[in-house]
Each structure stands twice: as structure tokens, then as C-alpha cells.
Amino acid sequence: SARLFCLGSTQKRSIDQNKLYWSYLTIISDETGNSVRSLHEVFKKEFLPPRFSQIMIKDQIFQHELPASTTDLDKSQFIDYLDKIASLTEIPIPNYEPNYDPKMQKM
Q: Which residues on neighbouring strands pair with residue 53, listed in sequence order?
């Protein structure tokens, strides 16, 4: 399977990587019967570190755990994330096709 990557880059994950990700989740959804949204949430929780938000009100600090986000990943981290999903599901990452729409495949 093809991978989108840029060696030595710490740039934010690309739009093409994001499109590939959602297409991949659709493929996994079709194979497993799980919703795309559920897969997305479970994989984030399983493979990404949580984020934290901290505020101070009247000299008291409040810290809350926030859900992880794929938006925060750089290109290399995003590839690692997809590889972890592929390893867990044993469903290969598809080749990226810019005009591919998985919804059209069902027609």
C-alpha cells in the first residue's frame, strides 16, 4: 500500500492524508460493521496521547483532559497513527487516489 510522507518534516498532516484517513475508516467500517465516527473516536483514544487544558480562576487551577486530535499530528506522526490502525485491524492502508469517494463505490 502507498503512504503519504515527507522525510524530515514536522509539518502538520496534509489535507491529502486526512482524505486518505477518512476513506480508510470507511473501508474499515464496511469490513467491520462499526460506524466511521466510532472507529475514529476509538482509534484516537487507543493510539493518541490525551491533550490537557488548564485554566486559573481565583487562584485555583483547573485541569481537564481533552480528547486526542488527529489535527495536532505532523505528517510523520500521522503515518505512524495509520500504521497502528492497520496493525490492529489487519486491513491494509489503501493507495491514495485524490478523486476517490468511498461513498460512490457503494452505488
A: 64
The model carries a pTM of 0.73
What residues have CB less than 8 Å from 106, skipping those under 6 apart? none
Distance CA 2, CA 96 (A): 7
Among candidate residues 100, 104, 73, the one with its CA nearest the CA of residue 2: 100
Angle, to 10 degrees, between the axis of helix 15-32 and the axis of helix 75-89? Answer: 10
C-alpha cell at 96: 491514495
Residues in the chain with pLDDT < 50?
1-8, 107
Helix (H, G, I), strand (E, B) or coil at 60: strand
CA dihedral 40, 105, 12, 79 (to 10 degrees): 70
Summarised one tens digit per residue, pLDDT across range 20-31 is 999 999 999 999
Residue the block writes with cell 491529502? 16
pLDDT number for residue 11: 81
